[in-house]
Amino acid sequence: MHPAISVVFFTTATGAGYGLLALLGVLGGLGYVEPGFWFGLVSMALALGLIVAGLLSSTGHLGRPERAWRAFSQWRSSWLSREGVASVATFIPAALFGIGWAVLGRSGGWVAVAGLLAAAGGAATVGATGMIYASLKPIAQWHSRYTLPAYLVFAAMTGAVLLNALLQGFGRGSTSVLACAGLATLAGWGWKLATWRHNDRLELPTSTNAATGLAGGTVRSIEWPHTEENYVLKEMGFRIARKHSARLRRITNFLAFAAPAVLLGIAFLLPWPVAAATASVLAALLQFAGMLVERWLFFAEAKHTVTLYYGR
Fold this sequence. Notes:
With about 300 residues, the chain is an all-alpha fold.
């Protein structure tokens, strides 16, 4: 599948944004993270900024972005529509939580309710995004039990690492949040390795014989039905060489998981707050860059069944 940059950034940015928003809504609303004007303002601005930037970026992949609003009407049958509805609806409790927690400096009561609703809305939006891909039967790499949990795990992972960086940066370092960020990174790493292992052993559920309906012997394509690439080949026939895929997997392992895990471990052991904050911020930046590579590979390594028609 063609890895459009707009969609790659969308899934990475909104995952991190909703993950951070959900953690702020739960921990801040229930009083586990103390409110504070500047900390709250920067935290909410970062979470909502990532979400808005991702949503705006996703419209870049549409042929007619001005018609994007029509997608909201198909929520009964479309995960894309449900994602859009959930993303917009989440802004209401998120705004109320931001006002109560960051501006008024309160937690508990209606602020906690708004925070929990914002967290639920964020989880629902990320879940709907994951189901867009997990529900596509023609793409075996996506239509598996690994896709939906991956979206939720990666959102929690990037959100936790961002929250830890913010807490450390504002001199509010929490050992519990730091430990959770490290464990979430290891969990995300394990899930990614399991997903790659599953996909590498995957056998396509259909063949050229089945696609053409011709039985007997092995059917193969001698010539394409046209001389130039069409829309189907550009969007669904994208291929990546095995050696490039292996190199990008190594980059993903290092940037998204290994380096952040080591940096978070260093931050956990260091007795100096400034050094711990520096390591935590660097871990968040490297992980975001690594997740961009991981998302690019997510699309590039996926093979649509329609490519059988072209002998690919």
